From TrEMBL, chains A, B:
PANTHER family named among the record's database cross-references: TRANSCRIPTIONAL REGULATOR, TRANSCRIPTIONAL REGULATOR, MARR FAMILY
Domain of life: Bacteria
HTH hxlR-type domain: residues covered: 19-117
Any coiled-coil regions, as ranges: none
Protein's organism: Chryseosolibacter indicus
Pfam families per the UniProt record, alphabetical: HxlR
Gene3D superfamilies linked to this entry: Winged helix-like DNA-binding domain superfamily/Winged helix DNA-binding domain (1.10.10.10)
Name of this protein: Helix-turn-helix transcriptional regulator
InterPro entries per record: HTH_HxlR, WH-like_DNA-bd_sf, WH_DNA-bd_sf
UniProt keyword list: DNA-binding, Transcription, Transcription regulation
Length: 119, 119
DNA sequence: CCGTATCCGAATAGATACTG
DNA sequence: CAGTATCTATTCGGATACGG
């Protein structure tokens, strides 16, 4: 049960936030959360599939981000008791609300990347 | 000249990024950049005014964020040679493109804050 | 008024090894 | 397969003092 493991106990408390923008950035900030949300936009992915989508991530950082996002109800975690174990991740309704936003970021990012050497 | 000071030289190189989402989060991630963009949405603010808008920020962090955002062409910096000095900050066209995005974040954040104790 | 500089602790991130 | 644990390196962020 992730909510009781020692591993989980880090960062259970949010820092104080001063406004809604601050709050939102605390929830989807960090190095990988945006990319995780984006990877899950079309449905369900297993842990290992996510790991391959998010190039460069370690198990430690991926697990940590996933636990925080589960706690914050952005994603849900579903264990399938096959052998070996399968674990599926997908967006919650709240998480799905963020997809248009991530998409805006992506479009803006592509635009900026294309203009990097011609400003 | 900020582009030549020792202070500026930190973080001149971006880390490697793997996709546009990653790129975008590197540019507006961090603790204060979202709030700075939001504060400048309606026009120009001076350094001290910004500082009062972004409650809790220190001069170090504000200056650092402003320099990075200037380097990334999200904001522009205008020095007015009065005495004492005035320095005005405003959004560039590229920075203005991010406002709808920040607004989405803010709306989502307010929605989430309201549902924190009734999930 | 608008920053710079320095010190230092906290938080974040990576590498590596190991387990049910 | 899906993590956990540990150790270390790097980065971030706050406090404080000072300067043009």
């Amino acid at each position: 049960m992730p909510f009781h493991s020692k591993f989980y106990q880090k960062k259970v408390q949010h820092k104080r936030f001063y406004c809604a923008v601050d709050f939102a950035f605390q929830r989807i900030g960090g190095k990988y959360k945006g990319r995780i949300l984006w990877a899950l936009r079309d449905g369900t992915l297993r842990y290992g599939e996510l790991r391959r989508h998010i190039e460069g991530v370690t198990t430690k950082m991926l697990t940590q981000a996933l636990k925080e996002m589960e706690r914050d109800r952005l994603i849900s975690r579903n264990v399938i008791a096959t052998k070996p174990l399968h674990v599926e991740y997908s967006l919650t309704p709240s998480g799905k609300l963020l997809i248009p936003f991530i998409d805006l970021m992506r479009v803006w990012g592509e635009h900026e990347i294309n203009n990097l050497h011609s400003p």
